[in-house]
Amino acid sequence: MKHRRKGCLLILLLATLCLAFPWLWHQGVNWYYNRAIYEPAATPARGVAIVFGAAVYGNGRLSPVLRDRVDTAVRLYQMGVVDKILMSGDNQFDDYNEPGAMVAYAVEQGVPAADVQPDFAGRRTYDTCYRARHVFQVKTAVLVTQNFHLPRALFTCRALGIDAVGARADLRPYRGARWYEVRETAATLVALWDVVNREPPPVLGEPIPLTD
């Protein structure tokens, strides 16, 4: 009877650990990479800013989350923290173009078009990081996104060979912010699977080096 009870307790403990692992992993990634996240004014200089895509409305208008990311990258460029901006987002449908809208907005803010590179196949964080390293030959970068997303982005890009730091793009409160935090728990677990498997994203292409 004692052996059966111990066996049940062990099974219960293992089940609890399995259920808790996604949350523990997410918290661990957040704790470790928070040290590499900066306010824009204090961000260390890097050659390239990588801006992660988000929703674009039907008229090409950037959502608040995305607009704040691009505004932050423009500020980093104007301060001389970065020399180039890589705008990475989703463009798998003809009527939806995140990178195109991001580039157009940055150019409107005064960034020379020659210093802004669209990445039309950054459908998710892993794709953006993989393509930044293997297509655009980025070795050092500032990752520009909101604080809830930065630890996962840093984990992914560093695991794929990019010496990256993060710049917070939190310029306002966001609707659905609580949902973003919850979603990151599952997304950070998927990021672990991605970097272990190292599968190339669906779209690659010829190298386009952003820096010498």
Describe the structure in your own words.
The protein has helices at residues 2-33, 64-78, 98-108, 125-134, 150-159, 177-197; strands at residues 37-38, 48-52, 84-88, 116-119, 140-145, 163-168. With 212 residues, it is of the alpha/beta class. A 6-stranded parallel sheet has the order 1-6-5-2-3-4, sandwiched between helices. The chain is globular, with a radius of gyration of 19 Å.
Structure described in brief:
Helix content is 47%, strand content 13%. The chain is an alpha/beta fold and 212 residues long.
Number of helices: 6
Largest sheet: 6 strands, parallel
Termini distance?
A: 70 Å
| Class of secondary structure makeup | alpha/beta
**Dominant shape:** globular
CATH architecture: 3-Layer(aba) Sandwich
* N-to-C series of helices and strands: HEEHEHEHEHEH
> What's the CATH class, please?
Alpha Beta
Q: How large a portion of the residues is in β-strands, by DSSP E?
A: 5-15%
Radius of gyration of CA atoms, rounded to a whole number: 19 Å
Count the E strands: 6
- Arrangement of strands in the largest sheet: 1-6-5-2-3-4
Helix-residue proportion: 40-55%
Mean pLDDT: 90
The total number of structural domains is 1
In CATH, the homologous superfamily goes by the name HUPs
Low-confidence stretches: none
CATH topology: Rossmann fold
